[in-house]
Amino acid sequence: MAKFTKKPLSSSELYQKLVDKNLLVQDGDKSLVYESLERIGYYRLTGFCIPFIQTPPEKPKSFKAGISIHTILATYHFDTGLRGIVSLALQKIEIALAVSICNTLCVKHDARWYAKEDLFTSKDTHDKIFATAAKYIKFDVKNYVGEHNNPNEYLKHYYGKYHEPRLPPAWMLRECASFGFWSHAFKGLKKEHRDSISIHWKYPNRKPIQSVVFESWLHTLTVFRNRCAHHNRITYTTLPYSPKTPDNVPASERFPKLDANGNATTNDLRTFLLIIDLLLRTVAPNYDWKGLLREQFTIAAAAGVVIRDATGFDYDWQNDTFWNDWVPLSTTKA
Hints:
This protein is mainly alpha-helical.
């Protein structure tokens, strides 16, 4: 391992680093570069430079010919706009997922289903999920008592007013646990319980999404959500997990096609947007999120962003099947 020796640099020194990497600086661009360094930061900005570095990278690394600050900022603004739209959609899915799991298990089993070991695939799985739930609801598992000095008013009220049962109902957990928690909780349930939840989530033809597919989608969207929440780049990249392709038609027809070896690339941005679109059919069928996406794509394309390279959509992205309307749920036969 090497020793880190890089020193903090001034804006003028950072500007010169970009110029030395062959960034094209035209008349009037210098002030924009400085503004970007001071508002976005060199380190963050370089993350959006990666797609425009010579391949294979030269030493020292240099930009491809003709790359300017406008090229980099077009990608930056496109990425930022997409993350905002995706985050709003994922918020709707996250809330609906928590409600779906809680409503199903509370009614069928108990308001404190998360404390029931027999609902989960193993004791170890349950113990981990229960321990995580306890952290969210500020519950001292060792002494089996809730924290009265609680930042959540509803939990503070519960722990202060009720002495039995000591554990609060799952609908209170629902209000403070993360997307990741619900994804792990769903995965940890026995198959019959997973099936009883995923049956409420439908493909466009009203058939239920299989629990094994639903589990895969939740896991990948958890990772995707975290990237968006931490402002990480989602364009010009592949994501770390490949979600399952459903066998349901027409949904499967819009997923990447198999190559000659029987493989398909499903860890690109387009596939993740497609999964969100499918889940929104259950959560918010009248939400025009595709309209919001198309607006961002149109602005980015006009600014010079190569949509195919940035997202995995077709080169003729306006006619990609992603944009086609699904048959309305209310009129489709099962």
